[in-house]
Amino acid sequence: MIELEETLKELEKTQHEYWNVSRQTAVFMSMLVKISRTKSALEIGTSNGYSTLWLAEALTHTGGHLTTIEFWEKRQKIAVENLKKHGLLEHVTPIIGSAIEVLPELDINPDFVFIDANKAEYIKYFDILKDKMPVGSILLADNVLSHKEKVKPFVDKISADSDFQSQVLDLPAGMLMALKLK
């Protein structure tokens, strides 16, 4: 089996082509999954699986499972191959389709959500997910600084929602982190 670190370094070479998070952001997410002892994680925007690999590996430490949604079949195919290569596919349910269509049909209550997909749809993802998320769950949204105008309605809405406490973190591209309080 090829070492995971080698695959991650290879994927980092195509970071801009596949819109992957930075290594710094991925390490943060991995640690957060482990600290929070995540059992049910949801990723919106699989792409080629860079963040998916980080999340799936972290979930091996918590006994958790990741559901990941990707619109582009070609990208998710790459992600699935990377997961298989490292024995991580058993911790992941990959789904192809539009998150707006898939999310209402998902029968999960994720205690960890990572959003990194169509920026204009962040607010719609939040509207669909907020009642499915249990108290104490964590939501992360990438690109809140790099795509500030596109995600502003989402940031404004979650910031004003008394059920959530949120903060924008100064990670590359900007990461919004929110905790469900009630």
Count of domains: 1
- CATH class category name: Alpha Beta
**Looking at the structure, what is the overall shape?**
globular
CATH architecture name: 3-Layer(aba) Sandwich
Full CATH superfamily name: Vaccinia Virus protein VP39
Note the gap between the termini. Answer: 44 Å
Mean pLDDT: 91
The level of helicity is 40-55%
State the low-pLDDT regions, or none: none
Q: Radius of gyration over alpha carbons?
A: 15 Å
* CATH fold label: Rossmann fold
- The strands making up the biggest β-sheet line up spatially as 3-2-1-4-5-7-6
User: How much strand?
Assistant: 15-25%
Counting helices, strands and paired strands, the structural category is alpha/beta
Main sheet properties: 7 strands, mixed
Our count of helices gives 8
Q: Which H/E pattern describes the elements?
A: HHHEHEHEHEHEHEE
Q: What is the total tally of β strands?
A: 7
Topology:
Layout: H1 4-12, H2 15-18, H3 23-36, E1 40-44, H4 50-62, E2 65-70, H5 73-85, E3 92-96, H6 99-102, E4 112-115, H7 122-129, E5 138-142, H8 148-160, E6 164-169, E7 175-180
Parallel strand pairs: 1-2, 1-4, 2-3, 4-5
Antiparallel strand pairs: 5-7, 6-7
Helix pairs in contact: 3-4, 7-8
What would you note in describing this structure?
There is one protein chain. The mean pLDDT is 91. The protein has helices at residues 4-12, 15-18, 23-36, 50-62, 73-85, 99-102, 122-129, 148-160, and strands spanning 40-44, 65-70, 92-96, 112-115, 138-142, 164-169, 175-180. The protein has one domain (4-180): Rossmann fold. The N and C termini lie far apart (44 Å). The protein is of the alpha/beta class and 182 residues long. The longest helix has 14 residues, at 23-36.
